[in-house]
């Protein structure tokens, strides 16, 4: 099986870079009337009038080509600003964008492992004690955990994640029994990947140390039933922090993987 990566995060990078170009023309006024496409998209008549720089768009185009992007469309007010590549081609996207809360967090000698289990629930491990809890959401980035594995009440832990502009967690605040800790997320390299088994496409994530490789690596496999990419309550992140890369993938017919479970 051949492992290959899909770089879909470039969309966010390009859009952020391009949106800043509007500041180059502060006098440009955008027509707020929405122009919705019918059989085909309408293209903007004047880039300059719409507040876009041709030179900077060209920089974005060359960057997209350099990372072997399949296709890019830049849209403003339902009109096409620019498009590169075969935009008519159907493209399967694997985990285009998920907020990165899962990871390893450190506060002095204390280490916490957080891993998303399902859409809303996450596991929380206090490494020093070995205690494992399920985090239950009570707010956008706020979670609670009770005194035992699957209990939410009475509340024993209150966990709040601090997010950056991209919507990824940079740190967490953990409150337990009146004790408050601030833990920073340990920097690791994360890459969405796909690989094939016959005509089945399996999607997952490769977590590896931030430094240059090569690194020893292992693959987390599943038990019975449907399952998405997990590393047994965050063990993959702990291993990566110790120099061992970890591949986690969605089981056949689960998450972003194709095929049938049975």
Question: What labels describe this entry?
Answer:
3 domains, 262 residues, Lipocalin, mainly beta, eight-stranded antiparallel beta barrel, 3 helices, 16 strands, five-stranded mixed beta sheet
Question: What can you see in these coordinates?
Answer:
By secondary structure, this protein is mainly β. It has 3 domains: 77 residues, no CATH class; 82 residues, Beta Barrel (Lipocalin); 62 residues, no CATH class. It has 3 helices and 16 strands. An 8-stranded antiparallel barrel has the order 5-6-7-8-9-10-11-12. A 5-stranded mixed β-sheet has the order 1-13-14-16-15, covered by helices on one side. Strands 2-4-3 form a 3-stranded mixed β-sheet, with helices on one face. A hairpin with a 2-residue loop joins strand 11 and strand 12. Helix 1 runs antiparallel to helix 2. The N terminus is likely disordered.
State the gist of this model:
The protein is mainly beta and 262 residues long.
Layout: helices, strands, pairs:
Blueprint: E1 3-5, H1 10-19, E2 42-43, H2 54-66, E3 71-76, E4 79-85, E5 103-107, E6 110-116, E7 122-126, E8 131-137, E9 142-145, E10 157-163, E11 169-176, E12 179-185, E13 188-197, E14 200-209, E15 217-220, H3 235-241, E16 245-249
Helix pairs in contact: 1-2
């Amino acid at each position: 099986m051949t492992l290959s990566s899909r770089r879909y995060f470039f969309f966010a990078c390009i859009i952020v870079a391009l949106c800043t170009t509007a500041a180059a023309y502060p006098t440009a006024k955008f027509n707020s009337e929405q122009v919705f496409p019918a059989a085909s998209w309408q293209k903007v008549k004047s880039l300059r009038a719409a507040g876009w720089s041709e030179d900077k768009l060209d920089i974005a185009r060359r960057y997209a080509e350099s990372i072997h992007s399949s296709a890019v469309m830049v849209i403003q007010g339902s009109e096409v600003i620019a498009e590169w590549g075969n935009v008519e081609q159907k493209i399967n996207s694997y985990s285009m964008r998920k907020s990165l809360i899962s990871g390893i967090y450190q506060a002095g000698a204390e280490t916490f492992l957080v891993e998303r289990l399902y859409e809303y629930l996450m596991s929380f491990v206090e490494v020093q004690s070995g205690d494992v809890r399920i985090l239950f959401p009570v707010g956008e980035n706020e979670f609670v955990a009770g005194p035992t594995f699957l209990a939410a009440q009475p509340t024993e832990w209150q966990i709040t994640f601090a997010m950056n502009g991209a919507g990824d967690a940079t740190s967490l605040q953990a409150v337990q029994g009146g004790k408050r800790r601030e833990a920073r997320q340990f920097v690791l390299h994360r890459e969405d990947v796909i690989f094939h088994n016959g005509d089945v496409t399996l999607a997952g994530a490769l977590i590896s140390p931030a430094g240059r490789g090569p690194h020893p690596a292992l693959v987390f496999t599943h038990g019975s039933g449907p399952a998405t990419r997990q590393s047994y309550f965050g063990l993959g992140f702990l291993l990566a922090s110790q120099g061992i890369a970890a591949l986690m993938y969605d089981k056949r017919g689960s998450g972003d993987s194709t095929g049938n479970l049975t």
